[in-house]
Amino acid sequence: MSKVLIIGAGGVGSVAVHKCAQIPEIFTEIHLASRTKAKCDAIAESVKTRTGITVPTYQVDADNVPETVELIKKIKPDLLVNLALPYQDLTLMDACLETGVNYMDTANYEPLDEAKFEYKWQWAYQERFKEAGLMALLGSGFDPGVTNVFAAHAMKHHFDEIHELDIIDCNAGDHGQAFATNFNPEINIREITQRGRYWERGEWVETDPLAWSMDYDFPEDIGEKKCYLMYHEELESLALHIKGLKRARFWMTFSEKYLTHLKVLENIGMTSIEPIEYNGQMIQPIKFLTAVLPEPGSLGPLTKGRTCIGNVMKGIKNGKEKKLYVYNICSHEAAYKEVGSQAISYTTGVPAMIGAMMMLTGKWTGKGVFNMEQLDPDPFMEALNKHGLPWKEVEL
Ligand code: NDP
């Protein structure tokens, strides 16, 4: 018997709640809270129709620790799953420490006024979680998340040392909109417009934003796509935890159309996080832009095609060089049919459910703050195959 409290009723929260409801023997009670209760109610209604499971819903401001503590005390969950925004990571970790509840999320903390993707703020909670005898699992989405587990799996079963790692994230889907982001627009644009960064021989090398690209031929008829080098948060923990790693890079595909729109928005200042005065009010242009762009959730019925996300890893096994590609392909249409969301939310919400399952079933335990690659990859890899994100591995 286990009780989970999920915070955040966006695209990812919706998938995670639907997937948890498919496994009532593990998730005996699912509670959902977010800033806007109506969004929680809409998810609860869809879950009820699809699975017959009732999900109690609540309004909460996760930036407010006392308010969140009160909600946690009322529900008394075994685990809090943070699927709100990265800005809420620290307040939710504080609320978990105050109430003695385990914590999990899918994205690392980011200060509102600075687009910085670093684990330092959350790693600083290590001692407090250890002393409280609690576990915090960071980044249980796809990337970060599954990509970290793919690396841990390769390390455990295929390599003595991994020397080169390229994480390649391809969205070969199309939603037919002139410009839209597949997850929260503000977080997405902040991430893409920052300077590129990769790990090489023990140090970080910087590039201009999206300045480097390569063509990659994706499997199963997805074909060749242009991928751009960018910084992604899992590189930081993987560079620390994967033995022998000499180079680690992250690549993402973008269409010409997407990049042209982004460039124009950037050039006219619409992606800026610097507050400006408008009609006597201070606003961040990116927040205004987020409000006018399509909600990622609305792209579900419109998106066709597939995603393909995986790790290309080169290293040594028994003194011989080896190159391995581990990947998952996910269909936007199949995800929509199953849980009413497109594949970007699906590929994040499913690993969020699996991370929660690992913690609630005791397959992953520990005291302190953990990144995904620090835990045994086997039960997680098995669960991916079982719960909608089957993976393949090929020697290149
Ligand atoms: P959405 O914007 O769709 O949803 C975010 C939800 O959080 C909304 O329901 C929002 O409420 C709620 N929220 C925001 N602020 C607060 C607050 N102060 N208190 C309570 N609730 C709040 O985002 P996504 O679902 O696309 O993304 C969710 C998380 O998943 C993000 O952290 C994102 O970075 C991460 N992510 C991780 C990926 C991975 O692979 N690891 C990939 C994609 C996303 P409201 O509806 O009122 O705005």
From TrEMBL:
The Saccharopine dehydrogenase-like C-terminal domain, residue ranges: 141-389
SUPFAM superfamilies: NAD(P)-binding Rossmann-fold domains
Location of the Saccharopine dehydrogenase NADP binding domain: 4-137
Pfam families for the chain: Sacchrp_dh_C, Sacchrp_dh_NADP
Gene3D superfamilies the UniProt entry points to: Dihydrodipicolinate Reductase, domain 2 (3.30.360.10), NAD(P)-binding Rossmann-like Domain (3.40.50.720)
InterPro entries for this protein: NAD(P)-bd_dom_sf, Sacchrp_dh-like_C, Sacchrp_dh_NADP-bd
Domain of life: Bacteria
PANTHER family: CARBOXYNORSPERMIDINE SYNTHASE
Protein name as annotated: Carboxynorspermidine dehydrogenase
Species this chain originates from: Maridesulfovibrio ferrireducens
Lineage of origin: Bacteria, Pseudomonadati, Thermodesulfobacteriota, Desulfovibrionia, Desulfovibrionales
